[in-house]
TrEMBL record:
Belongs to the tRNA methyltransferase O family. Residues 6-130 form the TsaA-like domain. InterPro entries: TrmO-like_N, UPF0066_cons_site, YaeB-like, YaeB-like_sf, YaeB_N_sf. This is Uncharacterized protein family UPF0066. Keywords: S-adenosyl-L-methionine. CDD domains: UPF0066. PANTHER family: TRNA (ADENINE(37)-N6)-METHYLTRANSFERASE. Pfam families: TrmO_N.
Amino acid sequence: MSYLKLNPIGEVKSDEGGAFIQLKSEYISAMAALDGFSHINVIWWFSDCDNETDRNTLQSEQPYKGAPKVMGAFATRSPARPNPIALTASEIINIDFDLGIIRVAFIDANDGTPILDIKPYTPSFDRVETPGVPAWCSEWPKSTEASGNFNWDKVFNF
């Protein structure tokens, strides 16, 4: 019989230079050969939303403008979901292999957020050439780079 046990490998931190991932010392050796990758997929825990109410919220009322009136948690990027797991593709700015620090251009997680895992972004596994999306979000940016300059206030209803 298997069981589920998650061990955070580090946490999100921020300072005057921006956001970075600080790994726990016992996981620093897992960074070997990460240099050369421009991006990583960061799997993190929505720790600020880990409560009974959010874990039992399976639907929400139109979180995005123009979206269906009711959407299931699996059709949104909402932190309210059965397991508050999140994924962010982040550009690597710098890696300090001695201190276990990965400075990133962006991550949509708060300071102190637990990091569960890091995987290198590789186009052969992570990029979809022609993804299909519903009409209500077809005008959203087509890349993380374009998302930085996009006015997300015109999209969200919260």
